[in-house]
Amino acid sequence: MPPRIDFYVLEGAEDRARLVYACRVIEKAFLQKLTVCVSLASLAEAESFDTLLWTFADKAFVPHALSRDGSGTAAPPPGSPVWVGSLAPVAADLLVNLGPEVPEFYANYARVAEFVDAEPARRDAGRRRFAFYRDRGLPPETHKLVT
Questions:
Q1: How far apart are CA 131 and CA 80, in angstroms?
Q2: How do residues 32-90 score in pLDDT, each as one tens digit?
Q3: Which residues contact residue 42 at a Cβ distance below 8 angstroms, ignoring those fewer than 6 apart?
Q4: What pLDDT score was predicted for residue 70?
Q5: 61 Cβ contact partners less than 8 Å away, ≥ 6 residues apart
Q6: E strands, 27-135, in order
Q7: Cβ count near 61 (within 10 Å)
Q8: Which of 141, 101, 69, 47 lies closest to 19 in space, CA to CA?
Q9: Is 3 exposed, middle or buried (0-12, 13-18, 19+ CB in 10 A)?
Q10: Measured between alpha carbons, how far is residue 146 from residues 36, 61, 118, 143 in Å?
Q11: Is 46 helix (H, G, I), strand (E, B) or coil?
Q12: Number of domains in the chain
């Protein structure tokens, strides 16, 4: 079965707002007992997001692990339903893509969540990702968010 693609579109251009909203989606998935793979463009971005995922809300707790090798060969440790890495695919229910490109392994997931804001470069990259999915017969569902 092809993946369901969801685009979360924020009206503002603040990158932190986009990343915090991604944290909320990840928390919701965790509370629904889903596993999550978070893909970022670089190890530095993955490390920064790892810190944010621990601190984005006072009462939130999302157990997760950080992949530092980027190889995609490691499995998440037991008890870590969320795996944060730099283009490191792992088996999970949901792929959260926070990078500018569509990860080549996107089809391995039942659901893909993409996050776009109004910053011009990120908006353009989001449009390219949207077209990529649409051109492959995977019409994305768009969720416009007020921040």
A1: 33
A2: 999 999 999 998 999 999 999 999 998 888 999 888 665 544 555 666 899 998 766 78
A3: 86
A4: 53
A5: none
A6: 36-40, 64-66, 82-86, 94-97, 111-116
A7: 10
A8: 47
A9: middle
A10: 24, 24, 12, 10
A11: helix
A12: 1
CB 56 within 8 A of CB 108: no
The amino acid that residue 2 corresponds to is: P
Q: Which two tokens stand for residue 128?
A: 């390219």
> Structure pTM?
0.92
**For the packed helices 43-55 and 15-31, what is the interaxial angle rounded to 10 degrees?**
70
Q: 99, 106 in Cβ contact below 8 A?
A: no
In one letter, which amino acid is 51?
A: T
Give Cβ neighbours of residue 33 (< 8 Å, ≥ 6 apart): 81
Domain of 66 in residue numbering reads as 4-145
CATH of the domain at 39: 3.40.50.10110
- Cα 139 to Cα 133: distance, rounded to the nearest angstrom: 6
In whole angstroms, how far apart are CA 127 and each of 21, 56, 118? 19, 27, 11
